[in-house]
Amino acid sequence: MTKNKEIEEQQRKKIGEQLVKYREKKGLTQVSAAAEIQIKNSLLSHYEQGRRKIKPEHLTKLASLYGINEKEFSDTTLTEKKTAYLREILTLYKIKLAVIIGDINKDTIIYADGKLGGDYDSDKDWKLGGGCFYAAKAALRYGFLPVLFSTIGQEDGDAILDELSKKTKEEGKCGVITTWIEKNPTLETSTCTITFGEGNNRKETGHQYNDHCNDFELSRLVEVISSSGAGKNDIIFCHGFRLNRKMREFNASKVIPKEKEDQRREYIQEFMESLSANGDDRPTIVFDLAPATDIYKNMTISELRLVIEKSDVIVAELRTLLGFLFNDKPENISDDVSKAINNDFEKFEKREITIINKKDYDTIIANFLGSRKGNTLILRYGVGNMDYEKIIERNEDGRPEVISDLSDKNNTTGYSDPQKKEKLGSGDMRTFEFLANKKK
Hints:
Layout: H1 3-26, H2 30-36, H3 41-48, H4 56-66, H5 78-93, E1 96-101, E2 105-113, E3 119-122, E4 127-129, H6 131-141, E5 144-149, E6 151-153, H7 157-168, E7 182-184, E8 190-199, E9 202-210, H8 218-228, E10 235-239, H9 241-252, H10 257-275, E11 284-288, H11 301-310, E12 313-317, H12 318-328, H13 335-343, H14 345-349, H15 358-368, E13 376-381, E14 388-394, E15 400-405, H16 426-439
Parallel strand pairs: 1-5, 1-10, 2-8, 6-7, 10-11, 11-12, 12-13
Antiparallel strand pairs: 2-3, 2-4, 8-9, 13-14, 14-15
């Protein structure tokens, strides 16, 4: 049994013991308690013996039945056990931490015959994927211990964790810390269909997500960051998916515009404060917007600045940032780009429009590079297949300085062949290579 599973089993048993104690204190038999909350007696028996993880709704009903606060069932020593295990690994391997917040998906790989939308040849079996997984592999390769924070489905959770352990051990001896990955008892693990094809004289990839359980309360995020003990020499790496989804939910709500705007800003501030849970000793915060390419449709540029102010490194794709600028004030970007977007927004989204000049570049730096010394913007063109990358840092004098420029090389971080699946996550590899060098 792995250490992660051992901790999970201890948690189930501890809660089971508490269930028995409070039931007997209430003077109820197992049969009568099960009948009261309308579940089978055999299921309550499994809960009490620690054989199965209790569903949240059943825990809520039992707490109400026994007349106690639901928090009474929490294992107060669980976080201490997770933290002790983490310290043990850190001491053993003497490496830095990377707390990684993102999705874990079951990917289906499809090969397109020609351009995307053509005939498909699909892999039959799912592959482990998602930003959390690829960032973990990258972190291991460049000398960090990844602590993963994500949510997976209960039903296939063990298979996911086993695959995660196997695939990440290929990158580093210490593997990954998965004790803060939660299994959702009612929803399935998220899925993603990835299509490889060719078009526009370049390799292409397409992504289609079916989000199920990739969600979390911010209190859980604070718990993992604070209990991990991540400090100034460590990294918090956060993908933009969750924030993008939350903003989309706010947009879809029927709350009046002013209240909706206040709720959105309040959530963003709370989200970013959660990443800064360790105060002055906080780690380097890396916010990766690159996979969330349509986030400019769900957030305003002023809301994005709330993220930038609290981050040390922003990773973003050119199209996403131009989208923010265009939505804010179209006159702020060059006439060529503005006209191109106006005339054919679909082509812009598909990256068939590649125009950028000095005015656009300067506007991007002015709006998306943080104001503090050392703030960094990793600017890319393309997701999956990245045709260029510039890394801009605010130097000692407070001026923007290009410290890495791969814009003159074709497919710098992308696929040389659309069927080479090992290239998935190459953007994260580039990011962690930069972070490792920056931490030296």
